[in-house]
Amino acid sequence: MIVVLKACHRELQILPTAVRGDLADALARLDAGLRLAMPLSRPMPAVGTGVHELRLKDRSGQYGIIYAMIERGRIYVLHSFKKTTEVTPQRNIELARRRLKEVRP
């Protein structure tokens, strides 16, 4: 089951169409129980246990989508942003942490 936080839903709506299509494909694979690996997905221990970042790109740039697998069968999409550097900016990490606290039991 995919759960998109309300605040993140707005962020996803502004992604380019091609990136949203790639995101839908990646989330469908996660929902089917498949594991994603580099370069598509990487662990984000700085945010929390079970948190990963999808790395998607198109002609307009690169995008990061932070998601968490907290409990079996549930994937929470926490945050989406356009990447301007290789390193995930600290403000995006902090925002994802705050949102993770909202959903973690």
Offer a concise description of the structure:
The protein is an alpha+beta fold and 105 residues long.
Notes on the protein architecture:
By secondary structure, the protein is of the alpha+beta class. It has a single domain (2-103), classed as 2-Layer Sandwich (YaeB-like fold), CATH 3.30.2310. Helix content is 35%, strand content 33%. The chain has three helices and five strands, in the order E-H-H-E-E-E-E-H. Strands 1-5-4-3-2 form a five-stranded mixed beta sheet, with helices on both faces. Strand 4 and strand 5 form a beta hairpin. The longest helix has 15 residues, at 17-31. The chain is globular, with a radius of gyration of 12 Å. It starts with a strand and ends with a helix.
Residue share in β-strands: 25-35%
CATH topology heading? YaeB-like fold
| Low-confidence spans | none
Query: Percent range for helical residues?
Result: 25-40%
CATH superfamily: RelE-like
Order of helices and strands: EHHEEEEH
